[in-house]
Amino acid sequence: MITAVKYALRNLANFAGRDNRPTFWWFVLAIYLLTIVLSFVLVIPATGSLILEGMHQAQTNAAPEAVSAAMQARMEGMMHATIWVSIGTSLLMIFLIAAAFVRRLHDAGLPGWVALVPLAINLAMLARMPGQVDRALAAMKAGTTTASAGIYSTPGAGLDLLLGWAPTLIVAGLALLPSTDGPNRYGEEPDDLA
Fold first, then answer.
1. d(Cα 108, Cα 139) in Å, to the nearest integer?
2. pLDDT tens for residues 36-77?
3. Which of 23, 24, 38, 62 is the Cys-Cys partner for 4 at CB 3.0 to 4.6 Å?
4. 30 versus 72: which is more confidently predicted?
């Protein structure tokens, strides 16, 4: 795994050649593990801050409505910050995986431009995210939904769910295609670096 990750990191801007399935998937696994760790590092303090705010409001004998309003205001800020961190993380993942995915497509005998399809869908989804969060927050303020249901009960939620999963499913499906045996028009058969 370490060899595959080092190889992919050395070739972040190299869209030529081929990557076999194990090399690509070990790199993707490493990136997802890093993303999970970063998510915990960011979410745990933010959640703790929200809980502490609620506890502070409750200890000052504030009315339940005041406690709820203070926590909702804190949650709004968290949701906006979280969405921008999520967009940044997604763009970083796209950058890190792009060249490896193109080389993986080459290994399966496909042209690299095919990678533009999930990229375009992913960018469209990322562009919609801030507006979707704003609509969910507005629905929560109006009392028409709860925080957990807010994002999924607003207009366009079905499209957002589809846009959210489509790039991942497309990349996974294409990256699972078998390698072409021997050399192809994109180069020699790659070594197994896993």
1. 46
2. 898 888 878 877 877 887 787 778 867 777 777 777 777 787
3. 23
4. 30
Compute φ and ψ for 156, nearest 5 degrees.
90, 0
Residue 87 lies in a domain: yes
Within-domain flag for 186: no
Taking the CA atoms of 169, 170, 171 and 175 in sequence, report the sign of the dihedral they define.
Answer: positive
- Residue 190, domain member (yes or no): no
What whole-number distance in Å separates Cα of residue 17 and Cα of residue 105? 10
Number of compact structural domains in the chain? 1
Domain that holds residue 145: 22-175
Domain assignment present for residue 129? The answer is: yes
DSSP string, 35-96: HHHHHHHHHHHHHHHHHHHHHHHHHTT--HHHHHHHHHHHHHHHHHHHHHHHHHHHHHHHHH
